[in-house]
Amino acid sequence: MTLLEVRGLATAFEDDHGAARAVDGVSFTLEAGQVLGLVGESGCGKSVTALSLMRLVPLPGRVVAGEVLLEGRELLALPEREMRRLRGPGMAMIFQEPMTSLNPVLRVGSQIAEAVRIHGGVGRRAAWDRAVELLGEVGIPEPATRARDYPHQLSGGMRQRVMIAMAISCSPKVLIADEPTTALDVTIQAEILDLLRALRERHRMAVLLITHDLGVVAEQADAVAIMYAGRIVEYANVFEIFDRPLHPYTQALFRSMPSLGGRRERLEAIGGQVPDPFHLPSGCAFRDRCPRAVAMCATAVPPLVEKVADHRAACIRVEEFPRDPA
Ligand SMILES: Nc1ncnc2c1ncn2[C@@H]1O[C@H](COP(=O)(O)OP(=O)(O)OP(=O)(O)O)[C@@H](O)[C@H]1O
Ligand SMILES: [Mg+2]
Question: What is the pTM for the complete model shown?
Answer without folding.
Answer: 0.93
